[in-house]
Design goal:
Layout (H helix, E strand, L loop, with lengths): L7 H9 L2 H31 L3 H12 L14 H21 L2 H34 L3 H11 L4 H10 L4 H30 L6 H31 L10 H18 L4 H13 L10 H28 L3 H5 L2 H23 L10 H9 L5 H12 L5 H29 L9
């Protein structure tokens, strides 16, 4: 008697529900529960001592990671980690874009454009020189390190400015810079890598063309999806979609990022522009009922908080202290040069001459200090490691050190400095 074949559908079901898959799902669920619980503790603690929650999340992640209590252990190269980093950073950027006002951007667009392009080159060049002279890095590796560290981090800055009411045009300029300069830093990094590994050939024309494509297509895709979202949730004829506004924002963020990435453009720039459209419905001729607008804002804030918790606790848990300590004081000198010399020079050269914005001395001083490093530079350093780029391990260690110092020092002092410089927005405090 022949044995009956198992129906294909049953085989598929059995494969999908293998014990290892189920156990992995349970472990993932437990990890997410632990991380979110730690996030609530971090938020309560940050509120009690009146500092942004980002540095608290990072420190809790360091304590809960494999080098500490061992509660959180998500490999850097895992699918879960990459999903959290990509979608989390994209959604936080969308949230940041939604806080911007077109009237403010019209006043400060020159500073944003110059500091997001020429400013990246200035910061990267000064940092590279410091790495070459202080650490003895060969120029190829030093230039790669400068390029990786040159961009500010929107995933860090947006939450900080969400929690501290800084004068509107200063906060929005710094957030816009952080959103727009990641494309520039990525292009410089990989153009340099191609020149180094390809025999030293570097084409300025090709690099500028890549920048124009990434930025231009990213802006265009963001505008298309942003207007579509605004029309869907703000046009009177689409009232039946209003109750699904929260879901539509998730769809718009994911679709804009993936569409831009598919066309080799900046996905982060695209989602930032989607956020700008969402936050300026009135300027586009659309409107929402006050109750709907309040519910939508509450949903976005809650989702952004969840993404922030996941990103920074995982980032803290993945810190390799042995890699950092291996570089010693020279690496610390590079980071301090990057913070205390490269950033101020960049701000003074790029924003100081902007007569349209007419920045005050206090505003320039604040922007000189505020430039946290986080997810985007960390991702670039990770890519160089995966590609076995020259000096990749040293680049990764200095990048990690820069992330720790800028978040733990600069983010925690943002409110204090803004208060000293009289830049707190009294209308929101």
């Amino acid at each position: 008697m022949t044995r009956a074949a198992t129906p294909p559908r049953l085989v598929k079901l059995q494969l999908m529900e293998s014990p290892s898959t189920i156990e992995l799902a349970k472990a993932t669920l437990l990890m997410v529960s632990v991380v979110m619980s730690l996030g609530v503790v971090a938020a309560l603690l940050a509120d009690r001592i009146r500092i942004p929650d980002v540095p608290i999340l990072l420190m809790i992640g360091m304590a809960a990671g494999p080098a500490g209590l061992g509660w959180v252990d998500v490999p850097v190269g895992s699918t879960l980690n990459q999903l959290i980093l990509i979608f989390g950073a994209a959604y936080i950027l969308f949230d940041g874009g939604a806080t911007l006002r077109l009237a403010v951007l019209r006043q400060t667009w020159i500073t944003i454009t110059v500091i997001s392009t020429a400013g990246v080159l200035i910061t990267g060049g000064i940092t590279a020189a410091a790495a070459h002279w202080l650490m003895g890095l060969p120029w190829p590796a030093a230039l790669l390190l400068g390029a990786v560290l040159a961009s500010t981090d929107p995933a860090t800055l947006v939450p900080v400015f969400r929690q501290i009411a800084i004068r509107e045009r200063v906060a929005q300029t710094v957030m816009s810079e952080s959103a727009f300069n990641d494309a520039m830093a990525a292009i410089i990094t990989f153009s340099l890598l191609a020149a180094i590994t390809g025999g030293g050939h570097f084409s300025l024309g090709v690099a500028l063309g890549d920048l124009a494509w990434e930025a231009g297509i990213g802006l265009l895709i963001g505008a298309l999806f942003g207007y579509g979202l605004a029309w869907s949730i703000g046009h009177p004829r689409q009232a039946w979609l209003v109750e699904h506004a929260s879901v539509l924002t998730l769809i718009a963020v994911s679709a804009a990022y993936l569409a831009a990435d598919r066309l080799h453009a900046s996905g982060f720039m695209a989602v930032f522009v989607v956020g700008i459209f969402h936050g300026n419905l009135d300027a586009l001729g659309f409107a929402q009922e006050p109750k709907t607008a309040h519910e939508s804002e509450h949903y976005i804030l809650t989702t952004a908080f969840i993404m922030r918790v996941m990103i920074f606790i995982l980032l803290g848990a993945q810190v390799d202290f042995a890699l950092i300590f291996d570089q010693g004081l020279p690496a610390l000198g590079v980071v301090l040069t990057f913070m205390l010399i490269a950033r101020p020079i960049t701000v003074l050269l790029c924003a100081g001459p902007d007569r349209r914005a007419a920045w005050s001395r206090n505003e320039l001083l604040f922007m000189c200090w505020t430039r946290e490093t986080g997810v985007i530079p960390g991702a670039l350093a990770g890519m160089l490691l995966a590609m076995n780029a020259p000096g990749a391990k040293v680049i990764a260690s200095v990048t990690l050190l820069a992330i720790l110092i800028t978040i733990l020092v600069q983010a925690t002092t943002t409110r204090w400095l803004a208060q000293k410089l009289d830049l707190l927005d009294c209308r929101s405090t």
